[in-house]
Model the fold of this input.
Amino acid sequence: MDRVTRKAHSFLLMAHTTWEHFEHEADMGLRVAAPTREAMFEGIAEALTAVITEPDRVRASQSVRVACEAPDDALLMVDWLNALVYEMATRRMLFREFHVTLEGRRLTATVLGEPIDRERHQPAVEVKGATYTALSVEHGDDGLWHGQCVVDV
Done:
């Protein structure tokens, strides 16, 4: 499976969450489709990790709490991704598991990962932050939550 397109599975509601990367000039786009809002935020976070390394290479050995709030789901997605980028940079960690709880426009999460091991993780790029480029979140006619965002690498 290549690094541009991959599928992540969610066991929520016995449905699958899928995410993929899309090329966007010098940056990288993230796109997710999921059965719930929470699974959408979890899926886009896994796609973020996959820009840097193969998520399966990351061990879920340490937990970190993350919280953010925004006036709508699209802005919340940017804040969520930027909170993860901040935690990765300041803690020198990568994350593999994401357990998101949403209350209105407030997101709280427990994320699990480990300190970066350059030999095992072989990080491809450093993500600098999420942008508002191509940003969208919608609850589709197919019953799935769709979200996308471009990250600066």
Q: What stands out?
A: Residues 1-14 have pLDDT under 50 and may be disordered. The chain is about 25% helix and 40% strand. Strands lie at 5-7, 18-24, 27-34, 62-69, 93-103, 106-115, 129-130, 136-139, 145-152. Residues 17-152 form a domain with the Archease, Possible Chaperone; Chain: A; domain 1 fold (CATH 3.55.10.10).
